[in-house]
Design a protein that fits this description.
Blueprint: H1 2-15, H2 22-38, E1 46-48, E2 57-61, E3 69-73, H3 93-98, H4 101-108, E4 117-121, E5 134-139, H5 141-150, E6 159-160, E7 171-175, H6 185-193, H7 197-200, E8 203-212, E9 215-224, E10 239-240
Antiparallel strand pairs: 1-2, 2-3, 3-5, 4-5, 4-8, 5-10, 6-7, 7-9, 8-9
Helix pairs in contact: 1-2
Length: 270
């Protein structure tokens, strides 16, 4: 009953409340409190809190969309423009967020091709919550098809995509490595466009896994508020929380073949 009340409160805060601090209230007032009292992170899926409190984060599953997961730092950070993201020794939040794909696959009940997934962080003008958070869910099928077609134009340097993506201008670059840890997409955008932390508030950043000539890598995407009419750099729009892209994907076998770092017995293993 207690858990049911918590989940109901989470759904209300995240879906029926316009407060910009709703996400912070869920992770801190509900998840952290419940974890401290009962060693259970509900309504979050997991709380990772090392000795250095500024390095921890919580993982939350959207109560309306089960294939949508959100990583939220346990330290109060406004968003992409947070100065903490530019400091030495910064936490690799995108790297950790990539591990959430195992939770999505567990919910789906089978392995999911990684190139059907994506991670995103919105600009300050394209978000509803003023606490840094990274979305991981499925990629829109039309976005995936366009990026597949334009992979020959994407290299190690930031360049605009040949065609607008969902009617908006995006810059893209590729990183050739099998895992997201160590890419630091926000720092890459800040370096290329020579942005201060306050200026980063205008940008949204997306990280999408793919392959180039059969080799695993990632596509980094960014857009800026005002580059196009109606563009608020709400890059979450490239993702599909309903994961309709999975309806066309028929796995060969059910079940998870790979070890998941998010299993119940390894809540704090990273």
């Amino acid at each position: 009953m207690f858990r049911g009340l918590i989940l109901s409160a989470t759904a209300l805060l995240l879906t029926g409340c316009a407060r910009s601090d709703a996400l912070w209230m869920v992770t801190q007032d509900l998840c952290m409190t419940h974890y401290e009292l009962r060693r259970d992170p509900a309504p979050c899926q997991q709380i990772y809190q090392p000795q250095s409190k500024g390095q921890g984060f919580s993982i939350l599953q959207n109560p309306r969309y089960p294939y949508h997961f959100i990583l939220v730092p346990n330290l109060a950070m406004s968003g992409i423009e947070s100065i903490a993201l530019s400091r030495e020794g910064r936490t690799d939040y995108f790297g950790y967020a990539w591990l959430m794909r195992y939770r999505l696959m567990a919910t789906y009940g089978a392995d999911v091709p990684e190139d059907r997934l994506g991670m995103a962080i919105n600009s300050a003008y394209g978000r509803s919550q003023n606490q840094l958070h990274i979305h991981l869910t499925c990629l829109r099928e039309d976005v995936r098809r366009q990026l597949q077609a334009e992979r020959p134009y994407i290299n190690e340097q930031w360049r605009p995509l040949p065609d607008r993506l969902l009617n908006h201008t995006y810059y893209a670059r590729r990183v050739m490595q099998p895992a997201a840890m160590g890419i630091y997409p926000i720092a890459s955008v800040a370096s290329h466009f020579q942005l201060s932390p306050p200026q980063l508030a205008e940008y949204g950043v997306v990280l999408i896994p793919t392959t180039f000539s059969g080799e695993k890598g990632f596509i980094l995407l960014t857009t800026r508020r005002g580059w196009d009419k109606g563009n608020r750099a709400s890059v979450e729009s490239l993702l599909d929380k309903r994961c309709e892209i999975l309806t066309a994907f028929k796995p060969k076998g059910r079940g998870m073949g790979a070890f998941s770092p998010f299993s119940r017995s390894s809540r704090n293993v990273f």
